[in-house]
Design a protein that fits this description.
single chain; alpha+beta; conserved putative lor/sdh protein from methanococcus maripaludis s2 fold; OB fold (Dihydrolipoamide Acetyltransferase, E2P); 4 domains; six-stranded antiparallel β-barrel; 21 strands; rod-shaped
Length: 391
């Protein structure tokens, strides 16, 4: 132990001025240790030959505007606020169908007809009421003529007038009952004049739109409250349903304008606005429902189409920008670019990226506008550095 202590003490004195070591020696020793502890700058650079330069494109860093936007992926669906299930107002069996799924129909256009016992009863009642009114009217006119010659008592005349007024009221009620089935005044007049009841009930489309579902067939018995034979949706507007991550949800507000891109129409954008934001976060996915109403004037959108919407949440910011091919993601997750001053020697530099837009990365730290960088061939340079480091 005494010999070890003496050796250490002697080594310390050799480094100090006690043994007369010059400052030049100490400086040389310090430079060697510093050089050994820090990575060489040359180790982060590569020099390219003339043939290798053909694989690299050099451009100055430029500034570009990056919009402050949020994106979400979703799908197109029918606007359920403008989607109507078409029921029969009365029970009966379907006679004919006039539309199929995918057809566009106008308001009032016939969808299907049914043989309705209720309609037959109502029409029979109006025919009977019309007959009673005709009979009471003729009787009243006859008694009026007889009363002029005092051939009948006044009481009989008054009774006939009362019967005729009651018959008029009964006919009005019967006509109203038939009108509830969708019959027009002209059709009711024809039924009365021909004394022929028509049990066929016409069920029209209540809106202009697209047939989205049909659950009907000739001979099928239908009634109110059962499965709707038809569903019609107004497709002038559609819904875009998206589930956004919980952390992005505060950026969305009802009424905000959105731009929607549809996979089926990659070169077009559809305008819309947010109409609903979900009241709860899905406990399994930690996402919030955001529903937008999209304009569809040409009726091109279809339910189930994939879509993504973009919403601007602030003014664009201007920052240094580097093409996507000019930024390399290293194995440790860092992002790097290759900087050059003479277009031959390239040095790797770590940068901090921000937004991605139109094929460019926003650079928050690392390079300044005007610096020359490799905008193409950055991966080639990284591979060259890796190969050189392994030798």
């Amino acid at each position: 132990m005494a010999m070890l202590a003496a050796a250490v003490l002697g080594y310390a004195f050799w480094l100090g001025d006690g043994f007369g070591v010059t400052s030049a020696v100490k400086a040389e020793y310090g430079e060697r240790t510093s050089a050994a502890s820090e990575p060489s700058q040359a180790a982060q650079s590569v020099d390219l030959s003339d043939s290798q330069l053909a694989s690299v494109k050099v451009e100055p860093v430029e500034e570009r505007e990056f919009p402050l936007e949020k994106e979400a992926i979703g799908s197109i669906d029918f606007n359920e606020d403008l989607s109507v299930q078409v029921f029969t107002p009365y029970p009966g069996r379907i006679v004919n169908l006039f539309a199929k799924v995918g057809d566009e129909v106008k308001k009032g256009e016939t969808l299907f007809t049914i043989d309705s016992p209720d309609l037959l009863t109502a029409e029979s009642a109006v025919i009977a009421a019309a007959g009673v009114l005709e009979l009471t009217t003729r009787n009243l006119e006859r008694l009026k003529e007889l009363y002029k010659t005092r051939a009948v008592a006044q009481r009989d005349l008054e009774q006939a007038a009362s019967d005729q007024q009651a018959a008029e009221g009964a006919l009005r009620t019967a006509r109203d009952n038939v009108r509830l089935f969708g019959k027009s005044e002209t059709e009711i007049d024809r039924i009365i004049s021909e004394r022929k009841a028509d049990p066929i009930l016409v069920v029209p489309s209540p809106i202009t739109g697209l047939i989205t579902a049909r659950n009907a067939a000739p001979g099928l018995f239908v009634q109110p409250g059962a499965t709707a034979p038809y569903t019609v949706a107004d497709i002038d507007t559609m819904w875009m349903l998206a589930n956004v991550v919980e952390t992005d949800s505060p950026a969305f507000q009802v009424g905000q304008a959105v731009k929607v891109k549809i996979s089926a129409f990659p070169d077009r954008e559809f305008d819309g606005k947010i109409t609903t934001i979900g009241a709860m976060v899905d406990p399994n996915t930690r996402r919030v429902l955001v529903r937008s109403e999209i304009q569809n004037p040409q009726h091109e959108l279809r339910s189930g189409m994939f879509a993504n919407f973009v919403i601007r949440i602030g003014d664009p910011v201007r920052s240094p920008a580097v093409p996507l091919n000019g930024v390399v993601r290293e194995g440790d997750g860092s992002m790097t670019v290759w900087v050059t001053a003479d277009r031959r020697k390239f040095s790797r530099r770590v940068v901090r990226v921000g937004l991605e837009h139109d094929g460019y990365w926003q650079i928050l730290e690392g390079v300044q506008p005007g610096e020359l960088i490799a905008t193409e061939g950055a991966i080639f340079l990284s591979n060259m550095l890796t190969i050189a480091s392994g030798q």
